[in-house]
Write a structure and sequence with these properties.
This protein has eleven helices and twelve strands. It is α/β, with parallel strands linked by helices. The protein has two domains: 58 residues, 2-Layer Sandwich (Alpha-Beta Plaits), CATH 3.30.70.1170; 203 residues, Vaccinia Virus protein VP39 (Rossmann fold, 3-Layer(aba) Sandwich). The protein starts with a helix and ends with a strand.
C-alpha cells in the first residue's frame, strides 16, 4: 500500500472517528475475512446442511443473530463450491454484514417489495427465503450484464414471485408503490477496503465518494416516493463514512415529516459509533465487513 494512500485513508477515518477507532478499523481491513454463508430454507432444511458439512469434515459455527447463517472454521470457499448443496442453490455464499439489511427489512408473505439495486442477488434471494417465497419481489438492476447474473442467482436459488427489471431504479414510474423497499445503495466501499489490492488508490478516491453521495441522495429520495404510507424502507451501504450514511439520511428525513427511524436491535455484532440514533454501523473485523444500516418508516 502506497504511503500517500495510507495517509489519505487514515486522515479520512480520523475525521470520522477518534484516532483509536480509526486504527482499529484499519486493523480490521487487514484481517483475513472468514468464509460465511446462509442456508436457503426454500430448498433445504438447516439440519441437512449441517449434516452435509459434518460428513465432508468441514467445521463451522453458528451466528447468534441468524439461525440460517454460518461461519466456516476450517474449510475454504472453494470446498463449499464443490458441494452439491452449493451447486443446487441450497446455500449461498454471502458476507455476514450483507445479510443484515434483509433481516432488518423483515419481509412478510404477500408484501410487495422492491430491491432497488439488486445485483448480484444475495439480498434479493434472502428476501425470498425469509418470506418463504410468498412475497412479491421486484428486483432492479440497470447494468445488463449484472442483471443477467441477478437472474441466474434468482433461478438457481429457486425464487418465486420475483421479477427482474433491467432499469435504473431512479427512473421507476412513481405510479408504482411498495410495502417495503431495500435500498442497498452504490457506495465508495469504505467498509470493505482490501489493503492488499495494489490498485486500491486508483478507485477509492475523493471523486468516488462525491459521486456516490449524489447517487445515494437521488436513490433515497426516489425510494421515499415509491414507498406506501405505512411502509418501511431499509437503506444500507458498505461504507462507514457519515457523508454516505448518516448525513444522507438526516437530509432526506428533514425534507419529509412523515418519516421516522425505527431502531435496529441486534446483539453480538461489532459496531462503530453512529451519530444517527437507531441506525447501525458494523465494524470491520475478521468476520464482518464495514456496513451501515438504517430502517425508516413512512407514517400513514
Amino acid at each position: 500500500m502506497e504511503k500517500s494512500f495510507y495517509e489519505f485513508l487514515n486522515n479520512l477515518l480520523k475525521k470520522e472517528y477518534e484516532s483509536k477507532i480509526a486504527k482499529e478499523i484499519i486493523d480490521g481491513y487487514n484481517k483475513k475475512r472468514a468464509t460465511t454463508f446462509r442456508v436457503n430454507t426454500n430448498k433445504i432444511e438447516i439440519e441437512k446442511v449441517k449434516n452435509v458439512l459434518k460428513s465432508s469434515n468441514i467445521s463451522f459455527k453458528n451466528v447468534a443473530w441468524c439461525r440460517e447463517a454460518f461461519i466456516l472454521e476450517n474449510g475454504k470457499e472453494k470446498e463449499l463450491q464443490e458441494l452439491g448443496i452449493y451447486q443446487d442453490g441450497q446455500i449461498y455464499l454471502q458476507s455476514l454484514s450483507s445479510m443484515i439489511p434483509a433481516i432488518v427489512l423483515n419481509p412478510q408473505q404477500k408484501e410487495n417489495i422492491l430491491d432497488m439495486c439488486a445485483a448480484p442477488g444475495g439480498k434479493t434471494t434472502q428476501i425470498a427465503s425469509i418470506s418463504q417465497n410468498q412475497a412479491y419481489i421486484t428486483a432492479c438492476e440497470r447494468n445488463p450484464i449484472r442483471a443477467e447474473k441477478l437472474k441466474y442467482n434468482i433461478q438457481k436459488q429457486g425464487c418465486k414471485g420475483t421479477i427482474v427489471m433491467t432499469k435504473d431504479a431512479r427512473e421507476l414510474d412513481e405510479l408504482l408503490s411498495f410495502d417495503k423497499i431495500l435500498l442497498d445503495a452504490p457506495c465508495s466501499g469504505s467498509g470493505t477496503i482490501n489493503l492488499e489490492d495494489e490498485k486500491i488508490s486508483q478507485y477509492f478516491t475523493k471523486e468516488l465518494i462525491s459521486k456516490s453521495i449524489k447517487t445515494q441522495m437521488t436513490l433515497l429520495r426516489k425510494a421515499i416516493k415509491l414507498l406506501k404510507p405505512g411502509g418501511e424502507l431499509v437503506y444500507s451501504t458498505c461504507s462507514i463514512l457519515k457523508e454516505e450514511n448518516e448525513n444522507i439520511v438526516q437530509q432526506v428525513i428533514s425534507e419529509n415529516k412523515t418519516l421516522k427511524i425505527m431502531p435496529i436491535e441486534m446483539n453480538s455484532i461489532p459496531t462503530l459509533p453512529c451519530t444517527l440514533n437507531g441506525a447501525l454501523i458494523v465494524k470491520p473485523n475478521e468476520e464482518y465487513e464495514g456496513f451501515f444500516i438504517v430502517k425508516i418508516k413512512k407514517e400513514a
